[in-house]
Each structure stands twice: as C-alpha cells, then as structure tokens.
Amino acid sequence: MKTSNEIACRTLYGKEKLVPIERLVLRPSAYGIVLHQDKILLVRMQHTGHFALPGGGIHTGERIEDGLRREVREETGIEVRVERFAAFTEDFFYYDPLEEAFHGLLFFYICHPLSFDLAGDGRVQDGEVEKPAWIDVESLESRHFHSHGGLILAILDSYGLA
Question: What DSSP character marks residue 120?
Fold first, then answer.
C-alpha cells in the first residue's frame, strides 16, 4: 500500500516499485532523435533487449546540448548537430541492478547526423546499451522501446518524420 512519502517508479523490467521519496535522485537527461533517410538511430538496452534513443544523464555544470552530443558519441560513435527541442517529460525510474531510484527530467531533441560510422559493441562507451543501428521508422511500434515509445513515435509523427 502506497504511503504519502512513497512514489511509484517504473523498474528496468517494466514493473512498478514503491520507493521512499527521499531515495530519489534528481537526474536531468537528454535524448537524440537522430534521423537519416527514413531511419532513426537507436541502441539496444543490454538488460531488456528493447530499443532506446541514444542519450542519458547530463553532468552538473554541463549544458544540455553538450551532454546530448557527448552521450550520442559515447553510445553510437557518431557526431550530431542538435537542431531543435522536441519534447519534455518526467519519469520516476527504479534501476534494479544498482537499487537506485531516479526522478528523471527527460529532454528530447531532433538531431542531424554529422557522421555515420557507428561504433561496434566493443567501442560503445556505455555499460547499459549496445548495438547502435539505423532502424526503419515505419517498422517501429511503441512496444519495441524500453520506455516512452508512445512519446517517441508521437514526436516523429508531429514533425512529419514517421
């Protein structure tokens, strides 16, 4: 039973876990919607095998767009130009392997690729994602994404990209 000092968090495996509010870590993050020739750049989550956008946590003192470029480079090996802000959402997420809970502030940006040589798994500089790939936008459904698939597809649709 939920108490007033707990919040329901989505777990890595799609379950719900009640977490004391004082355990939440505020985590701003940015994600790139990188498109090229009717394909979107995605990575796979190692723990679940589902797709995710490249991106992640922004360091204290780091500008959001700089952090996004860094995250895309670490996870995919390519450089991007951040073109425009697309959407914002909040997320309450429990990361099972480390037993950590986050209040995520998620910023989504449309990006343009400046390079195309994707990193192989041995070169991906992130312990949570693997296999960066260009995926046909038309083949995607919300259920293919680790999280926020409906929002990602809605962004693509609103910009006429899907």
Answer: P
Model confidence pLDDT, tens digit, residues 20-67: 999 999 999 999 999 999 899 999 988 888 999 999 999 999 999 999
Q: Can you tell me the distance from the alpha carbon of 29 to that of 16, in angstroms, rounded to the nearest whole number? A: 21
* CA dihedral (125, 131, 133, 136) positive or negative: negative
- In order of start, what are the domains of the chain with their CATH numbers? 6-158 (3.90.79.10)
Q: What is the mean pLDDT of the chain?
A: 91
Residue 117 φ then ψ, to 5° = -80, 95
Copy the structure tokens of residue 104: 């995520």
pTM of the full structure: 0.91
User: What percentage of the chain reaches a pLDDT higher than 90?
Assistant: 75
Phi, psi of 72 (to 5 degrees): -60, -45
- Cα-flanking dihedrals φ and ψ of residue 159, to 5°? -95, 5
Other C-beta atoms lying within 10 Å of the C-beta of residue 58: 21
d(CA 149, CA 141): 7
Query: Smallest Cα–Cα separation from 78: which of 108, 117, 112, 52?
Result: 117
